Structure formats: C-alpha cells, structure tokens
Amino acid sequence: MTDNTARLDHVVLWVSDPVAAAHFYEQAVGLEPLRVAEFKEGAVSFPSVRVNEETILDLAPLTMAPRMNMVPGGGKSAGHPVNHVCIALTEGGYDSLRARLEEREVPVSDHGRHSYGARGPAVRSFYFRDPDGNVFEVRYYEEG
Questions:
Q1: pTM score, whole prediction
Q2: Does one domain contain both 85 and 144?
Q3: Does residue 68 lie within any of the structural domains?
Q4: Alpha-carbon distance 29 to 2, whole Å?
Q5: Cα–Cα distance, 7 to 4 (Å, whole number)
Q6: Are 48 and 94 within one domain?
Q7: Which range marks the domain in which residue 42 is found?
Q8: How many CA atoms lie within 13 Å of 91's alpha carbon, on the beta-carbon side?
Q9: Are residues 88 and 56 in the same domain?
Q10: Residue 135: pLDDT above 80?
Q11: Is there a single domain that holds both residue 114 and residue 85?
C-alpha cells in the first residue's frame, strides 16, 4: 500500500505582475490573496493565493529569476514549461468558477468528461489560462 501522507504545499508560478495576478486569482478564480500588502510594501518577495487550507500558489515575479540559486541553474526555471496545474472543486464551485471566468471574458475550453486524476475519473473538467499564460485545469468528482 502506498503511503498517502504527502500533501501538495505550494506551486510557484512565474508572473509578470504579482499584484495583478493576485487580483485575477481573487476576482476571477475566487482564491484568497495572501501577503499582497506586504509585497507592495517591499516586506516580502512575492504574494500568494490560497487554494485550500493546505495548498497555496506563490506568485513569483519574473524579476526574481536571477536570484533563484538554491540549486545550480535554478534561475533558468523562469519560463520553464509546466503543462498545467489542476484544481478540484465541488460541482457548484466548478460551475461558479466557469461563470466568473466567462463574465470576465477569460477563454475556457470545452467541457471534458471522465479525465483521470488523483481521485479517479472526474465528472467534468475544463481548462483556462491566467494572464501570464499559466494553464489550469478545473474539475469535479462525483460527491458521495
């Protein structure tokens, strides 16, 4: 049996304007912004948005790339291709998010059905891109 105690803590997204990105994720996606005021004041290097109680998305400015030297070549990760990040919601949350994105004229894909994920096949899914081109999949699973 697999030890399933690991949890996704955060994903770092490279963005051109962290404050605008935080606004997009708050207004269009419905995620809670974190440390935006502190970022504006210069007290922290980047803001974040909360996906759930255990997971955040860090919104790292592209200007940080040259300082990403914790591993050799770390700065070259800016612009490194990541296919997409997937967020699982309830059916109601899924429908609400899609409606908010469409209200803001954010292009969304057609609905996918039964694509495989962490909890098996999802009932429905769709994709969208944030203003910096990061691709997100949104899905929901059968509740029960």
A1: 0.83
A2: yes
A3: no
A4: 32
A5: 8
A6: no
A7: 1-63
A8: 6
A9: no
A10: yes
A11: yes
Q: What's the confidence (pLDDT) of residue 81?
A: 67
Domain count, the chain: 2
End-to-end CA distance of the chain: 23
User: Which bin fits 42, alpha (ψ -120 to 50), beta or left (φ > 0)?
Assistant: left
By CB neighbour count within 10 A (0-12 exposed, 13-18 middle, 19+ buried), where does 106 fall?
Answer: middle
pLDDT digits 0-9 by tens, 66-116? 887 667 777 677 777 677 899 999 999 999 999 999 999 999 999 999 988
Residue 95 counted as domain residue: yes
Give strand pairing partners of 108: 128
Which residues are CB-contacts of 66 (< 8 A; sequence separation ≥ 6)? 75
74 domain-assigned? no
- CATH number assigned to the domain comprising residue 127: 3.10.180.10
